[in-house]
Design a protein that fits this description.
It is built from eleven helices and 21 strands. It has 403 residues and is α+β, with helices and mostly antiparallel strands. The chain has two domains: 147 residues, Adenine-n6-DNA-methyltransferase TaqI, Chain A, domain 2 (Alpha-Beta Complex), CATH 3.90.220; 148 residues, DNA methylase specificity domains (Adenine-n6-DNA-methyltransferase TaqI, Chain A, domain 2). The strands form seven sheets. It has a four-stranded antiparallel sheet with strand order 2-8-5-6. The radius of gyration is 29 Å and the shape is elongated.
């Protein structure tokens, strides 16, 4: 720290106001329109436009101590703790709720400098230490926060540091956006490649309904056939839509049945080579049953399909999960609150069916491409992590007089 810097208690350079106790803002006082009530979401997402709750003028005047003004800072105080935002110049007049802390900087400290300092590892670690790892729950905790020490340079130096950080963080934000875009493109590449191949060659391929390329299409057991009392913690896994993740089957220890229950529902036992399809919710979810899952039980929320010899299981899973097929399923789905598939929709789903050798060659190429893109994904994820570490390092340097 440089000689001209001074160490101050946080309470000496800004005013603290903890949000009102919950009893002061009961649901009964909210009105359809009026003065805004700002919540944690406004600190967490650094936005002040989306307002869910309002109070009338009488209530606002009663609680004017909690009013937000431009250049105040707000900090989230429970759950997602320690997120900070600066109040912009033009916001809807209003107050903070009980989950926020308001800080009003004095003329000794720049609001932007204070915001950057509160984002730093130094302050965030102090916050966690003083809070015992839990949410700030009462005003007494605020008195402790006021004693946290901040190293404070003269105002011109604060402004220089803020300018340097603004420029550096703008560059980091651009680099992160590019890396995130590249990451999304890498993840989408195998599916885009499959779609390109299908679009290019589909006119020369046979198009068939699903019931023409499947030996059977079956629904899982009805709810009356399987009760909560049948579930055990160590047994045979059920495969419901929630267990279909990224074209793989992920079992849940809370959704298992005994071997006896499984055997009583023998018509729904899965075999290697079956394809399990989610019947409701996010449509297009499916997975190929491997030797590992053979003998598991299809759940009530799923279909299972036994394909004929004209369709490769891996090719079907990639095809069924493609954006084009998902769009068709969502268009045909039934249900007002949750999209669902039925036998009629699946039976009549039209799919391109290239020769089986072509299917397997396409899938071999897609798998090879997916392996390469996984390396790219890892590279971009490492870059994103490095950019986050760079931000932390810059903040550390800034508040130790090294920037």
């Amino acid at each position: 720290m440089k000689d001209e810097w001074q160490t101050k208690a946080l309470g000496n350079v800004c005013e603290f106001v903890r949000g009102p106790f919950g009893g002061s803002l009961k649901k009964s006082v909210f009105v359809e329109d009026g003065f805004a009530v700002y919540e944690q979401q406004h600190a967490i997402y650094n936005q002040f436009e989306a307002i869910r709750y309002f109070i009338d003028e009488t209530k606002f005047r009663e609680m004017q101590r909690f009013e937000l003004r431009p250049n105040d800072l707000i900090m989230s105080c429970s759950g997602t703790m320690g997120k900070v935002a600066i109040v912009p110049g033009k916001i809807r007049q209003g107050i903070i709720n009980q989950a926020l802390l308001k800080l009003t900087p004095s003329d000794k400290i720049s609001p932007q400098f204070l915001k950057y300092w509160m984002d730093s590892t130094s302050f965030q670690d102090s916050l966690k230490d003083q809070s015992g790892g839990v949410a700030i729950q009462n005003v007494a905790s605020v008195s402790i926060l006021k004693e946290i020490k901040i190293s404070l340079p003269p105002l011109p130096e604060q402004q220089r540091i803020v300018g340097t950080l603004d420029e550096a963080f703008a560059g980091i934000a651009t680099a992160k956006a590019n890396a995130e875009n590249n990451l999304q493109n890498a993840r989408a590449l195998p599916d885009n490649c499959l779609q390109f191949i299908i679009n290019k060659y589909r006119e020369s391929w046979t198009v068939k309904r699903l019931n023409q390329i499947a030996d059977s299409i079956s629904t899982g057991p009805f709810g009356t056939m399987l009760h909560k009392s049948d579930y055990v913690t160590d047994g045979i896994p059920l495969v419901n839509p929630m267990n279909i993740v990224d074209s793989s089957i992920v079992p849940s220890s809370r959704m298992m049945v005994s071997e006896e229950t499984r055997d009583n529902l023998s018509a729904y036992i899965l075999k290697a080579g079956d394809v399990v399809i989610g019947r409701r919710g996010e449509l297009g979810r499916c997975a190929l049953v491997t030797d590992r899952e053979a003998g598991w039980l299809c759940g009530t929320g799923s279909f299972f399909v036994r394909l004929s010899a004209v369709m490769d299981g891996d090719f079907f899973v990639s095809l069924f999960g493609s954006e084009q097929v998902k769009a068709r399923l969502n268009s045909d789905a039934v249900g007002a609150t949750m999209s669902s598939l039925n036998h009629g929709i699946l039976n009549n789903l039209l799919l391109p069916v290239p020769p089986i050798k072509v299917q397997r060659q396409i899938i071999a190429n897609i798998h090879a491409l997916r392996s390469e893109t996984q390396s790219l994904e890892s590279l971009y994820q490492q870059k994103l992590a490095a950019l986050d570490e760079l931000k932390k390092s810059l903040l550390h340097q800034a508040f130790n007089g090294q920037l």
